[in-house]
Write a structure and sequence with these properties.
alpha+beta; 6 helices; 176 residues
């Protein structure tokens, strides 16, 4: 039952929809109002990849909390990395996702929870985060073939990855 529900959510995300309570909602929000108090008709365009990644991170948290490790791997690991994963965790013809979850699930859950509250800054087809929950201190996603995937061994440039929430607050100019 649980596996079927998670598969439904994952495939809904990959198809560009978020499925909630049996109703399909589009993952990408094309436009949002610039300000609630603004009287101008200006509209801010939102990058649909940003909305997709935010929803994917939230779904990943739910999958890891629900121990839906197979669905997590299918949603977050690129096909190329998935082949290496299958070789590393295959036992007697099948993959033992519980072993993988016990080794990596808790750490990944902590990483996703930390980055879920951070702003998404897309540079090209990558998003990098600084987080002390990741072993290397950074965590990254790559956008390829219309989907976001975790990069195996975060490939964040030496310059600044996405700022932490404290850095975002500190760096905002104060308006008089």
């Amino acid at each position: 039952m649980l596996k079927g529900r998670w598969r439904h959510i994952v495939f809904g995300l990959m198809a560009g929809q978020m499925v909630l309570g049996g109703f399909a909602l589009p993952v990408a929000a094309a436009e949002t109002p610039a300000s609630k108090n603004s009287t101008s008709p200006s509209v801010v365009k939102v990058d649909e990849r940003e909305v997709m990644l935010r929803n994917l991170i939230d779904a990943g948290i739910l999958m890891l909390e629900g121990k839906a490790y197979e669905q997590f791997v299918q949603a977050f690991v690129s096909p190329e990395d998935r082949r290496r994963f299958e070789q590393a965790y295959a036992k007697q013809g099948g993959i033992n996702y519980e072993v993988w979850g016990s080794e990596k699930g808790t750490r990944l859950l902590n990483v996703l929870k930390q980055i879920s509250v951070k702003d998404i800054v897309i540079k090209g087809n990558k998003v990098c985060y600084r987080t002390d929950a990741a072993p290397s201190g950074s965590f990254s996603f790559a956008y390829t073939k219309g989907a976001w995937f975790i990069e195996n061994q975060a490939k964040c440039p030496a310059d600044k990855p996405a700022p932490t929430p404290d850095e975002q607050i500190r760096d905002k100019p104060i308006k008089p």
